[in-house]
Design a protein that fits this description.
- By secondary structure, the chain is mainly beta.
- It has a single domain, classed as monomeric porin ompg (Porin).
- Helix content is 12%, strand content 55%.
- The chain is built from 2 helices and 14 strands, in the order αβββββββαβββββββ.
- Strand 13 and strand 14 form a beta hairpin.
């Protein structure tokens, strides 16, 4: 029943997003000329005071987060890495791909890896050390909906899924996001017990560029995050290079 609820929640989000997106697409006219192909390759790095994601904090110390990303028109392929400088390094590398449709819907897949040998032992246990999350996102002006269903094997070797959904809005002064999930998102950091589906992420964030000289500026970001289920509150800042 629990897995069925997750799948139904994911399908409901897809249905709402697609119906809204197709309605929006119907109101658009086709351009007279085809768009020219756009290809780019980007790389960069964020240095964050803490690694906080979907209401969860990982590792200790400053987090270094480099990335590389290839984009061809609406198709994106990239890799993102995290490593903390403290005693708990929280090593993680994610491979992701996505396709953004012109009517506001993006679908994609993320491969999460966070421990051990990235290729497994003789490639035999790849399914045990990676987590796969198909996701869908719908953006309508400053409003954004996200839903992802992460598939992985737990410590007992059982196949399971964690659902996470989020609604965010970009205000003039800050961005606001509220997300809910189950599984890892509502697991008590004190007792390790897993709760039911609940709100796990309330975040206010802001990005700002600080001008140092006429030719040099520093892009900065900061946020405060509350996980009401796990009773955790975080404040963190970072710079982008």
């Amino acid at each position: 029943m629990k897995n069925t609820t997750k799948i139904l929640a994911m399908l409901s989000l897809i249905a709402v997003s697609m119906s809204s997106a197709f309605a929006q697409e119907a109101s658009l006219t086709e351009p007279a000329e085809e768009k020219k192909q756009s290809i780019s390759f980007d790389m960069g790095m964020d240095i964050m005071s803490s690694y906080v994601w979907r209401g969860l904090k990982s590792g200790t110390g400053v987090a270094i987060q480099p990335y590389v990303e290839y984009t061809s028109n609406n198709f994106t392929l990239g890799a993102w890495n995290n490593i903390n400088t403290g005693s708990d390094e929280a090593f993680e590398i994610n491979l992701y791909t996505s396709y953004a449709f012109p009517f506001g819907v993006t679908i994609g897949l993320t491969d999460y890896f966070g421990h051990g040998n990235v290729f497994g032992y003789n490639f035999d246990n790849l399914g045990e050390i990676h987590a796969l999350e198909p996701f869908i996102e719908y953006e309508y002006y400053d409003l954004k909906f996200f839903g992802g269903l992460m598939f992985f094997q737990n410590e007992l070797g059982e196949s399971t899924q964690d659902f996470y959904g989020e609604i965010s809005y970009a205000f003039d002064l800050f961005d606001f996001a509220i997300g809910a999930g189950d599984g890892r998102y509502v697991t008590s950091p004190e007792w390790g017990t897993v709760g039911e589906f609940a709100i796990c992420n309330i975040t206010l964030s802001k990005e700002k560029t600080i001008t140092v000289t006429d030719s040099f500026s520093i892009p900065m970001k900061g946020a405060i995050t509350l996980n009401p289920h796990n009773e955790r509150f975080y404040a963190y800042v970072g710079i982008s290079l």
